[in-house]
Write a structure and sequence with these properties.
Elements (H helix, E strand, L loop, with lengths): L8 E7 L5 E7 L5 H12 L5 H8 L33 H24 L6 H37 L4 E4 L5 E8 L4 E9 L6 E8 L2 E2 L5 H4 L2 E2 L1 H6 L2 E3 L5 H18 L1 H25 L1 H10 L11 E2 L3 H9 L1 H15 L4 H10 L3 H62 L7 H11 L1 H44 L3
Antiparallel strand pairs: 1-2, 1-3, 4-5, 5-6, 6-7, 6-9, 8-10
Helix pairs in contact: 1-2, 1-4, 3-4, 7-8, 8-9, 8-13, 10-11, 11-13, 11-15, 13-15
Length: 480
């Protein structure tokens, strides 16, 4: 049986006597399991009612407090609510509910008999009684899971040995964990809000945010703005806690045990890998794109702000190899300029960073003339395509004028006729007027070509816009 985070255990990072961190899993005691098992058995027994379940539930060891946690929902679920204890109902209220339901079912039986359909009132009433039990059982189980999790979470939270731990808060939450004098982590989450859900971790070393610079070239696509804001951005799933907390342990222990190696690993090596990748892109962007297609990065599945090349990217590259290659190269190389503010902070502490800043600006200035040429070429192509599009639209309008008498005649034939006859009327009309059929086919071909050129214009305008944004970024950040 697979153990689940925050259902079977709380994931945590503890600090040991030697100052190093360790990832641990604190088991959540299932102190109510035997009672829940009895209640589940009662749900299966048709002789038991929700009143019996309520009586047994009174012996549960629970706090009865409300907990703002996602359990039992997924972090990426939407419109969720915190688990609550279901309200008990009295015998009188239960009897009233059952009587009202039975009267409702008797009316349904009368309606069914009028239609000659079978209807079993007792069976339907049993379903209703069973539904009450199962709904109550589900609510109790969800609350117990949340309550037992919170009991362990609160004990971990109050223990100074535990530096970080897996949480379940619904909505925007920020946890700040000062691990040591030099290392601090920020965990920002927004669970329970569908597509707006996120799970972000920031590593700060000596007050400066550490950015995964190499992700720019490690993955086919990388959201530069997000990379500037977060050291890691995980998928909003419970298993991301294991990945993120192990990341905390690995990086913190390195910073504690070997500060020089930490700087080399997380700053120097990251910057060197980024610059090597940007150099390769500058030298042969085609080879880099093809390499991404051949060897996708499996770790992309864990993160949100990066991804591997997809089918649409490949199709676009095949259709527009020159424009896409130019736009991709410009996006990657100019996008790295977004790191300049962060790099400037680092350069005040580590002088070697200044060399990377200089090279990054130089490589951007070197591609600026190339960007200008490609933009100009795309503009010329767009002018030609728009001319073709206007000509096709004019041709289509002229053809539609020719078709108007035929359409008017056909509409007259269909007028006041039953709609079921329209197809046969149209079919006969086409047989008697082959020139009309020819015009329909011609119009369809023209429209098809209009759609094709419109899409080509749309794609090239996108490439042009992306290139213009890259040009603007280079002028703003690399020329000073």
């Amino acid at each position: 049986m697979n153990m689940e985070i925050n259902k079977d255990f709380v994931a945590s990072v503890i600090i040991k006597d030697n100052g190093l961190l360790e990832y641990v899993e604190i088991k959540i005691p299932k102190r109510n399991q035997h009672i829940l098992s009895k209640m589940k058995d009662m749900c299966e027994n048709p002789n038991r009612t929700i009143l019996d379940l309520q009586e047994i539930a009174a012996s549960l060891i629970i706090s009865k407090e409300e907990h703002n946690v996602c359990l039992p929902y997924e972090y990426y679920a939407s419109y969720i609510h915190a688990p609550k204890l279901p309200e008990n109902i009295s015998f009188a209220d239960y009897s009233k509910m059952c009587n009202e339901k039975k009267n409702e079912l008797l009316k349904e039986k009368d309606d069914a008999e009028e239609k000659g359909e079978p209807f079993d009132v007792e069976r339907e009433l049993e379903k209703f009684i069973s539904m009450l039990k199962y709904n109550y059982m589900r609510a109790i189980s969800d609350y117990v899971d949340a309550d037992e999790y919170m009991a362990v979470f609160e004990s971990v939270k109050c223990n100074d040995t535990h530096k970080m731990y897996s949480s379940e808060n619904i909505g925007w939450t920020t946890f700040i964990y000062p691990i040591s004098d030099n290392v601090k982590f920020e965990v920002r989450t927004n669970f329970g809000y569908g597509r707006s859900a996120y799970f972000r971790v920031n590593l700060l070393y000596k007050g400066i945010q550490i950015i995964p610079y190499s992700d720019v070239v490690k993955y086919y696509f990388a959201n530069m703005q997000d990379l500037c804001q977060f050291t890691r951005q995980y998928r909003p799933r419970r298993e991301s806690w294991q990945i993120s907390l192990n990341f905390v342990v690995e990086t913190t222990n390195l910073a504690h045990a070997n500060p020089e190696q930490f700087v080399k690993t997380w700053i120097k090596n990251e910057l060197e890998e980024m610059m090597k990748g940007l150099r390769r892109l500058n030298d042969n962007v085609k080879a880099e794109i093809e390499n991404f297609e051949k060897t996708p990065n499996p770790s992309a599945d864990h993160f949100i702000c990066v991804r591997n090349i997809n089918h649409q990217d490949i199709q676009d590259y095949k259709a527009y190899p020159k424009e896409m290659a130019a736009a991709y190269k410009a996006y990657k190389i100019s996008g790295a300029l977004n790191f300049l503010d962060n790099l400037s902070q680092l350069s005040e502490v580590y002088t070697f960073v200044g060399d990377y800043i200089s090279e990054l600006k130089q490589i951007n200035m070197a591609i600026l003339p190339e960007i200008e040429i490609v933009i100009s070429n795309i503009e010329n192509t767009l002018t030609e395509l728009r001319g073709q599009l206007d000509a096709l639209k004019s041709k289509k309008e002229a053809l539609e004028k020719k078709m108007e008498p035929f359409i008017k005649t056909l509409e007259g034939l269909k007028e006041k006729k039953d709609s079921s006859l329209w197809w046969s009327i149209t079919d006969n009309f086409k047989k008697l007027n082959p020139q009309y059929c020819k015009m329909i086919d011609e119009k369809e071909e023209i429209q098809k070509r209009i759609n094709e050129i419109t899409y080509i214009i749309y794609k090239r305008e996108n490439f042009k816009q992306n290139l213009e944004e890259s040009r603007k970024l280079i002028i703003e950040k690399a020329t000073n």
